[in-house]
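Cross-check.
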Amino acid sequence: MHPVKTDTHVIELLNFVRDRIWTISGSVRNTATLLEVLVATKIALLAGLDPQAPDLPIAVWQI
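Predicted model, tokenized:
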């Protein structure tokens, strides 16, 4: 294989992998955020707080 073609192919593969990693990391962040909201809501409900209260994060973390 010609070196230039090899280098181009490697760069294309690296770009593909980078894009996939960004996609996966975005999904992980979104999932973590969703889980954080679900846990905070469950804690609020168990503590007898209104999960729709505007100060929920403060109330939950003060428990």
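The two ends are 65 Å apart (CA to CA). Confidence is low (pLDDT under 50) at residues 59-63. Passed to J.P. for a second look.
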